[in-house]
Amino acid sequence: MCRLECFVLLSIPAAPLPGAIPSQCVWIPFITLRRVTSCYVSGQADKSPRAEWTNLWRFYHTLRGDIHLVNLRAHQKYGPVVRTGPNNLDLDLPALVKTVYSADGRFRKTEFYPPASTVVNGRVAYNLFSLRDPIEHARQKRPVAKHYSLAGTLSLQPHVDDTIRLLCRSLEERYVGADEFGEGFDLGEWVKMYAWDVIGQITFSKHFGYLSTGKDFDGHLCMSDMGADYLSSVSQIPWLDRILDKNPIFPIGGATALLGPTMRRLEDRYAGRDDRDPDQAAAQPDFLDRFLEVQRAQPDVVDRQRVLSYLSINMLAGADTTAITIKAVLYYALRTDGVWGKLVAACGDAGLEPGEIPSFAQSRAVPYLEAVVREAMRVHPGVAMVLPRCVPDGGLELPDGKVVPPGTSVGMNPFVLGRNRTVWGPDADDYKPERWLRADGETEEAFTARLAVMNAADLTFGAGSRVCLGKHLGLLQAYKVVATLAIFYDLELVEPEKECIAKMQIKSTRTNLTDQQWQYETKVVHAGLDNSRHGECTVPIYNSASFKFPTSASAEDAFRAVPDEQRWVYSRFGNPTNDAFEKRMAALEDGNDAVSLASGAATTLTVAMSLAGAGDNVIVSNFTHGGTFHQFKIITQRMGIETRFCDTNDLPQVRSLVDNRTKFIFTETIGNPKFSIADLEPLAAIAHDNHIPLVVDATFTAAGYFCQPARWGADIILHSATKWIGGHGTTLGGVAIETGRSDWQANGDRFPQLQDLYKILGNRAYMQMLKWDFMRDTGACLAPASAQQLCVGLETLPLRCERQAGNAAALARWLSTHPRVAWVRYLGLPDHPYHDLARKYLTRGFGTVLTFGLRGGEAEALALIDALDLVTNTPNVGDRKTIVGHHWSTTHAQCSEAEMENMGVYADLLRLSVGIEHIDDIKRDFERAFERTAPAPAPAPVNGKGDRCVGKVDGN
């Protein structure tokens, strides 16, 4: 076991607001004589000076960083309504949250917000935080809102994962020793450097460099602290900002200086200076890509200055609050007895294993982690001061019947609201994650009602129409970073008695190469290989049909009804070689466990039979491969299972087809040969809302190389391993991977066959049933020699796929300009109807397969196949060699013409699985074939098109 240990110093500020007074600030004392009149208040918040006469005291305490504590003491002394200034009231009234922060925008923002604006080229540039006009705010938010939605945020996970890996690698390189304690360090600073680097990565596809250098090398982090001091304090007296930061002659303070790197990167992108790989940039667009796309689409709404204002929100609001949240979660979870241990156990029970950064979906599937994070945000919110609004005409009626007059500034402090005993109970001051979970003996109805009250009082991300735009991005990072640290390391506080300062012990929990936090390309070589017995350097073949029992008692034990541990009995339902292949596939597809089978067809049918039976129904994409279509049309129907075919991207139709006998939804990541892209994220939401699994055939995305369906909510992932995994046309095989996130108990009546196993094995129940029931009794097992060949095939998969995808893109462009070619269908071409979805889900290119048709129709297509020399005519894909096939007369021949056309199979269609040969040789082979075959007369149009073909796409 590799023991990595060090002492870590974790420091977080005692208050969410920094306490140092920035050197740029100028102290300008003043007193205002304006007061709130005809208004019920409980008293003043501070006696020196009196709050009813001046805002100066609030300015002072904000600078000190203790305004949240001052507000809390005032409410404890005076009650739920406290005067905090001549025209300012702080409310501790959860019942009024929806009123003050209403979605209708009646309570408009006060002058507190404009100081967060920046100055660009002498003009004040308002951003979505500083804008007060709700109509203009909505107009500017609308073009980019989708990019901050949950779906838009999830597409940024690869950027976040890269930065988390960099954080772990930086810490281990500097501080972790072998079998000894390393030197102490400030983990809080590293979390802050992470937060800034990840903002750079998701915004510009480039880290700022703080994690790699291990320091604030350009002073930017220090400047951000000073900028936060300035904004939080000067916003209490907003006209000061016009004298200081917005001073056109000699500006002092403010956030404008923080935008230097942002403006440079923006100008570089406008000037075409982009050092990213074009394919990678297309597959993983950053925020700036998306903002520039919005500008091109809506130039009347979004100009250069508006793009800069969008970027400024990321820079000014994204990093500091994220860092505060993550540090708070770590601090309170480690400082409170038993919490960290429970969290680590909960992550383990959920199937999170050291070595692989958990996806957001995996992290959110750990209820105790969600409780730990939400409780930390309650007791230590990222912004802990009043978020004011202006009372509209008609005033604000308080619960006691008194009315706050129009024009008064009212608001609530998330720190104070988070300690309201009517909501949180008598232990509101305590950090207690269990309050977010259903208590023993509490009914589901009671818990739902209690949770609704807590949610309504949670102002962590604001409320109403002005909910923080970066909410999903902040939560995604908090869940993923905390989960990663929990499963990668053992952490222990050494000095928990010190308030907000904590030393912790950190050591690796990873035990072998399988669990390293490797990139995909490394996992294909090392994952699943346990060479602890003999030191072998490749997966060995255990060519044994059965395994010896040391005693009769152990034989009896092996055949127990519940296989709760790994044991080898008979290779039909388990073999060490197959186990290595299954572990490798689970690692590559972000899964919990895997089962290998004799073929891809066997895999699909076995999974279908394991989940559905006579009288049940399943929902299946009508764009599936011909063999799969036939299985669900004929084979499962004979078993009494009804198949409901539909376009699974037609979400309303999918919802309408689900009933209480529906057992799963089935689709393909890339439909074959139409190249439809399944919109996995909303499809998974429909499945999970109905407590059924989303089953995805991911064969065409090559063992997670192009797309990992688990990251988008897929529950069971299938592969024909014969294709890209084997990669050499030598081995039949299939594999099913489960993510371990399915709640098989949520609808026990739907899956009765899993209930007893689930109580004992938890998220391992389904895979164990597949192995010990279906594999044992149907015999569709993979031979150990085949499993070993598939392991070897995986080791070169990234190299093959990178070359094949590049060749496919080049060949698609070449064919689209050829005079004999009528049309080309390839996901990488902008005119493909699924191109946008492909950009969302495919992270390393657009696949290795394309289809095309000739102007002479079917006759010319078949003649061309016969004239090819290098390109092979065989019914396979994913091979290292280039393969051509004619679906109409081969793989889909058992389908009707109507069914084939619906699946995108036409008489003139030729499918190309592009290999690793030199692209010039592939082109030359086609050119010679064109020369050998005379153009056939074009067939008569069908429905206004060529011979059952789509129109020719632009070859850009």
From TrEMBL:
Superkingdom, taxonomy of origin: Eukaryota
The keyword Signal is annotated on this UniProt entry: yes
Cofactor entry: heme; pyridoxal 5'-phosphate
Any single Gene Ontology cellular-component annotation: cytoplasm
A GO molecular function held by the record: heme binding
Annotated CDD domains: CGS_like, CYP57A1-like
BP GO terms, sorted: cysteine biosynthetic process from serine; L-homocysteine biosynthetic process; transsulfuration
Residues reported to bind heme: C468
Pfam families, A to Z: Cys_Met_Meta_PP, p450
UniProt keywords, alphabetically: Heme, Iron, Metal-binding, Pyridoxal phosphate, Signal, Transferase
Region described as Disordered: 935-956
Signal sequence residues: 1-22
PROSITE patterns (UniProt xref): CYS_MET_METAB_PP, CYTOCHROME_P450
Family per record: Belongs to the trans-sulfuration enzymes family.
Protein's name according to its UniProt entry: Uncharacterized protein
Organism of provenance: Pyricularia grisea
